Amino acid sequence: MTTRPEDAETRRDVPPVICYPVETLPQPDMGLYTRARDRLTKTEEVLVAPRDAATFHVPAGHFFRIVSVEGPQVGDLNLWHADDLSERFYTGKTRALHGTHLTTGQQMWSAFPHLRPMATITHDTLGWYGIDRYGGSVHDVIGTRCDPYTHNLLKGGHYHHCCHSNLTRALADHLGVPLAQAEPHVHDVLNVFMCTGFTRDTGQYFMKASPVRPGDYIEFFAEVDLLGALSACPGGDCSSEHSSDAAACHPLLVEVFKPEGGALDGWVPPAANGYDGTHGR
Length: 281
What we know:
alpha+beta, 7-stranded antiparallel beta sheet, 6-stranded antiparallel beta sheet, 6 helices, globular
């Protein structure tokens, strides 16, 4: 037990300060992207089976969509630079820059030392949801992905279709390497369509039924050449539980689109971060 100090409320009432003001953050040209997305040609599609994952490739300057096609379903998304798996999506810095949940106009940032936009969200049919009365919202960068290790820790047993395992299998198959070699590349995810937040009383991460319905989608613009992997979570719409076969699950569709020639005139892929890397030496 601790003793409450006399000035406890004074300390608690100090107003917050935003850690990373983004006024100087380079902004994507959403006008250019909006015009480009008006004339797109589909070049590839990948159907991700329920309780499984699949990989896909998106060239820089192309768009891709994750689409709900049969029923409410959330997905766990990993992104890597297609030519360098060490450059991968960095949820922590993305969260610090944009907040706990992402939507149109916000970007997915890559890990150090690159720290550049990997993808920009260009359309989100769930953008209307906002923040509900429980503090919940969609497309979070706070949940790490369901995984067999935490499942084993909390419940025992060995469940093999958690998103972490799904992503590991998909990446191993794509690379043609053993699971143990692929697994270290699997990282924290964008929880696509998942509705989440933190409880106000205990600060615990919660999930609730996703508002996604067939036909809803989130669309991205690839700022660099991307290798993606998407898991159709065993939690289905995450209204009750995950890491089991109890929930109704549905496939997710990934579609890749090429813009019309000349539609992106003036756009260039973002350069890697400009820090000199000397760290004071």
